[in-house]
Amino acid sequence: MKSSHLSTSSLNWNSNIQDLYSRGPTKSAQSLIDAGYSTLWQLLWIIPLRTQATPVIKNFQNAYEECLFSGVGKVLSTKSLPSFKGRGKNQAPLLNITAIVKDIFSDNIIELKWFNAYPSQSQSIQKLDYLKFSGKVQIYNSSKQIVNPDFESILSTELPTKEEEENPLPNLKIQYPTINGVNSSNIKKVIDKIPAQLWREIEDIIPEDIREQRKLLPLDQSFLLIHAKTEHLEKWSDGLYEEAKKRLIYEEFLDEQLKIHLRKKKNINISAIKLEIKDVDRKKYSSIYPYELTPDQDSTLKEICIDLNSGKRMMRLVQGDVGCGKTTVAITSSFLIINSGLQVALMCPTEALAKQHFEEIQSYCHDLKFTSKLLCGSTSSKDKKEILKGLENGEVDFIIGTHALIQNEVKFKNLALAIIDEQHKFGVDQRLKLLNKGEGTHCLIMSATPIPRSLSMTQYGDLNISTIKTIPSGRKGSKTRIVMPENFGKFLNFINTRASMGEQIYIVVPAITESPKQDMLNLEEVLEKFKKFFPNLNVQGLHGQLKNEDKNQVLKEFKNNEVNILIATSVIEVGINILNATVMAIMNPERFGLSSLHQLRGRVGRGDKPGFCFLVIDKSVSQESIHRVQVIEKYSDGFQIAEEDLKIRGAGDTFGKEQSGSNNGKKIANIILDFSTLQAVRDDLSEILKQNTSHFKRKLESLAKDAKVFSTI
């Protein structure tokens, strides 16, 4: 491999890691590059797990109980005994090692102990004559000892002649996280290759007055403190280290907010179809329903109309709790578009949800003389051909479908509005594919998973957000109770009572079939049990692996009240709307996320009959799991639940696979713990943009050239 090694003077923070090496990157450096740390600037953001000041070397008489102590001693004896733990990796025997060490400054003794050590460690300790060590001191049977100390060999010629004096720049032990198989010491070796002069060439984009107001350290000093570069510092302390972390948290949030600012700015500048939507038309299409729009629905619709009239592309997220009426707003917006002679597409994550939307929309379209069609994977070739022709020549006004809508063969005459339902179940690329099927197409995104405020400021910060909180009148809602094993009989009696009243029941399980690796109830097992519990009722199963025709048949029978109890996986989490189903029982609720539990609960209590949700715990589970489930029992507000879910699970799992990771890809900032800093950054952003310093301009220009910054539009 040809080297691209640059001279030290020509390196900058945008240089590639391989430029540090004249003969090509080391194995560790290449592994970091493969993990996404390709530039020197990205190396800076490998934040240590901890940095600890190692105490100076002292006489053993200064080894007080519970203190962190460093010393140098002569190894008098070592002893290795088999560990109770048995064997480690590759069946290697584990040992408990004891070394008796005598102080080089006195006759004092300390015992050093290592538990569950491998034979190789025992052999290396037995070979030691002198060693330097550090660790926390304990008193056991009146003897001083240190368990699992850090240590290194030291030659007799290297022995200190006196105790070390305290220094404003202590010896620091730094521990980086293991990345792509590269351990802490090897990461440090790569970072140590960064030339000394670069550490003082870190540009600070925050104006000095804001930095002083927020009591923030300069950025270069913060990175020096974080990476323990004491050779460039006048002093180091735990307090300064915490101040450096505070500054980097601010910096990371600022970087994110700048990207959001650029995305929003680009989006505003994208020309789109301009519609002249009049109040009279908005009121006309708002009054076609057998109910009145709630104040929140009406205000959201007005916000959408302002967007559509602006001549700029609408990128609006409509969020709201289960059953708040987001779909009504989306349908009304669609009719305003179609009234202007343009087309609308509604993309759903599942065929069941697409069909449910289609049935509702079709009834309204029939009365309004609009043409609506359904396009899914199961659509026949003949029907598909006719639909594609109708979309291309403009005869089809409103298309409802699944991923089938983004196939290359789907072409529109004049697509003006793309609606994405349950947006977190789609990738960014899929959303863009649908948007790109029209010229200047507007985008309306719906989410029944309420977005916590902190996330709305970060990963959804480039979208305009409308929130619907008021629930349409006439809905009874649901009550939630946890069912422990001792109350299972009462739970079955309750189901029997509701079924005898003609009401229907959902039973949700976390798995389809039995898995030897996972201790949880499965659909096949629960289906057989409930058939035995209720031999006089029609009990059926539903899961995602069924053929579409079989799935649709079961849903049809349930909708027609031919099935009394439906045993299902979370395939029913979204979009199933059967008003006669009043009981939702979720088996092993600890296996579901809080947002999923809340979504499932939303399948009942949607009409004029009250709903009941039971969280059935069938075995002993941890207190932590019970605490999580109690959140659903305690709260009915989806926004409150989303906040609790975020606290418990982190930002990662709240909105699906795209956002995986416990801290949503953050290096040091935490949107939950550091929310006040995030707010401060947002408050400061307009002033930072206004001052527009030279460093800031360069930063903004650099971000504007990065295609990844705009990949989430």
UniProtKB/TrEMBL annotation:
Report the protein name in the record. ATP-dependent DNA helicase
Helicase ATP-binding domain location is: 307-468
Tell me the ranges covered by the Helicase C-terminal domain, including all copies.
487-647
* InterPro entries membership: DEAD/DEAH_box_helicase_dom (IPR011545), Helicase_ATP-bd (IPR014001), Helicase_C-like (IPR001650), NA-bd_OB-fold (IPR012340), P-loop_NTPase (IPR027417), RecG/Mfd (IPR047112), RecG_dom3_C (IPR045562)
Q: Which GO terms describe its molecular function?
A: ATP binding; DNA binding; DNA helicase activity; hydrolase activity
Keywords (A to Z) from UniProt: ATP-binding, DNA damage, DNA repair, DNA-binding, Helicase, Hydrolase, Nucleotide-binding
Gene Ontology terms describing biological process: DNA repair
Which SUPFAM superfamilies is this protein grouped with?
Nucleic acid-binding proteins, P-loop containing nucleoside triphosphate hydrolases
The answer on whether this UniProt entry bears the keyword Isomerase reads no
What organism is the protein native to?
A: Halobacteriovorax marinus (strain ATCC BAA-682 / DSM 15412 / SJ) (Bacteriovorax marinus)
